[in-house]
């Protein structure tokens, strides 16, 4: 057994030994309407709440705060896991910032600065333990390099999606179940993840929601590995 496997086993044993490990600890899952992460922490007794401008789609409105996260960010949280809107932070659409697209996207640069400022307010929140999740994008230079970059297929989901984590007083996530990612190969030779390909034809808002949802394996790793850190350190 490798050292990393031993660490995972120890953390899983701690959670198994204390079913309500998170009792009394408050976790804010910012910018989450799906409630995937919120429900994972709730399963282990954490007083976890999702927060988003949209109503929740996870089936537990009693665990959801619909509104501006900055209205509640000072309410005594032990940990915050945040998923800031990435549309203007990702590098995937960088070409649209060129002058030739100015008529099509007249406010795109202002929108990017608004997104950067939102991200930085989250990063500087007065909460002892913070994790910020975002795709590979401009915050690696506008803020700092992420603590780590993870993949869903490290945690049992067969998707390929490089995901950055900026961590404050939380350990790096250790892979729990390495599987082979499902890759779509186009005639041109270009490759695509299965989720990205299957959501291409969805309406814009549905596509955004589907692609922004945290994978179950990652959510489980968060509570198994960070839950012990929140409750025991």
Write up what this structure looks like:
Strand 4 (about 80), helix 3 and strand 5 (about 130-135) form a beta-alpha-beta unit. The radius of gyration is 18 Å and the shape is globular. It starts with a helix and ends with a helix. The chain has one domain (about 5-230): Rossmann fold (3-Layer(aba) Sandwich). It is an alpha/beta fold. The chain has helices at about 5-15, 35-40, 110-125, 140, 195-200, 205-210, 215-230, and strands at about 25-30, 45-50, 65, 80, 130-135, 150, 165-170, 185, 190-195. The longest helix has 17 residues, at about 215-230. The model has no long low-confidence stretch (mean pLDDT about 90). About 30% of the residues lie in helices and about 15% in strands. The strands form two sheets. Strands 3-2-1-4-5-7-6 form a seven-stranded mixed sheet, with helices on one face. A two-stranded antiparallel ribbon has the order 8-9.
Number of domains: 1
**Shape field:** globular
Give a short account of the largest sheet: 7 strands, mixed
> Could you name the CATH class?
Alpha Beta
Radius of gyration: 18 Å
Query: What's the rounded overall pLDDT mean?
Result: 90
Q: Determine the N-to-C terminus distance.
A: 25 Å
The amount of helix comes to: 25-40%
Order of helices and strands: HEHEEEHEHEEEEHHH
Are there runs of 5+ residues with pLDDT below 50, and where?
Answer: none
Looking at the overall shape, the CATH architecture is: 3-Layer(aba) Sandwich
Structural class: alpha/beta
Q: Strands of the largest sheet, in order across it?
A: 3-2-1-4-5-7-6
Helical stretch tally: 7
Number-wise, the strands total: 9
Stated plainly, the CATH topology is called: Rossmann fold
Percent of sequence in beta strands: 15-25%
């Amino acid at each position: 057994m490798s050292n990393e496997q031993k660490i995972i086993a120890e953390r899983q044993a701690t959670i198994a030994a204390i079913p309500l490990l998170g009792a009394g600890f408050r976790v804010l899952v910012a910018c989450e309407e799906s409630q995937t992460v919120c429900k994972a922490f709730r399963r282990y007794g954490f007083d976890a709440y999702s927060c988003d401008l949209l109503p929740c789609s996870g089936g537990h409105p009693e665990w959801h705060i619909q509104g501006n996260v900055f209205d509640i960010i000072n309410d005594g949280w032990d940990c915050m896991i945040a998923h800031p809107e990435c549309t203007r932070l990702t590098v995937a659409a960088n070409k649209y910032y060129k002058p030739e697209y100015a008529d099509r996207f007249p406010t795109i640069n202002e929108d990017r600065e608004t997104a950067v400022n939102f991200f930085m307010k989250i990063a500087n929140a007065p909460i002892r333990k913070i994790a910020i999740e975002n795709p590979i994008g401009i915050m690696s230079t506008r803020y700092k390099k992420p603590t780590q970059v993870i993949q869903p297929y490290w945690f049992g989901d067969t998707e390929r999606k490089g995901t950055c984590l900026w961590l404050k007083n939380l350990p790096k996530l250790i892979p729990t179940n390495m599987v082979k990612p499902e890759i779509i190969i186009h005639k041109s030779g270009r490759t695509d993840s299965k989720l990205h390909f299957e959501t291409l034809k969805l309406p814009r808002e549905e596509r955004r929601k589907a692609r922004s949802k945290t994978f179950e394996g990652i959510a489980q790793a968060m509570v198994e590995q960070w839950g012990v850190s929140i409750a025991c350190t």
